[in-house]
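Record type: monomer structure entry
Structure origin: computed from sequence
Chain ID: A
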Amino acid sequence: MKILHLINLQGFGGAERLFIEYLKNSSFQNEILCTSNSLNKNLIPELKNFNIKYANKIASTKIKYPSFLRKYVLTKKIEASKADVTLVWDFVPRLSRKPKNTSLVYYDHGCSWRYPLTNKTLGFFGMLNNAIAISTASKRVMELRFNTTYEPKKVINRLPLKPSEIAKTLHDGNQITLGTASRLVGLKGIGISILCLSELIKLNIKAKLIIAGDGEQRN
């Protein structure tokens, strides 16, 4: 079976990490159609062995299609792939119509909560053959917000974890350590972790916060 992955690779977070893990372990024929004009620097070493095509660029050049043509070009590029399934990773693409000869499936990683209920959004969810949800909440949000005629399939969103063979203990039992890991952008709500740390300090509770990730709000 051939799968065309329609994905924006400008950022680096959980969805992109899962995408890489999938590619490394997949037994299907996979093709990547990237809607961003470049790759995030953290993804380059991971994806260097994969053939990546760009939705907005003319063939293998750096020349981009005019913006008013891009929805038509994207639709044609999806059809030209002749994939059994076109998997859209966590965003709403601009399509001129439903692509022919492929099953269109949306893979939600939490963005379905915040999409505006515009004609573009509702039109896209109306085109879908099905959707994949990362949780029961994700499934219900899609069903209720977009009135889906299909039942999204739930696939738990987790990365492979290796069990630790060494027991870990806190060196300082009097200190609370908080941690957060994600892209450092507003919608991830990293500020809540900082406010939580502030409240602990006000209560004279010894605490520290460890932040892992990169993004526009890093500074």
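Annotation 1: The mean pLDDT is 89.
Annotation 2: The first strand starts at residue 2 and ends at 7.
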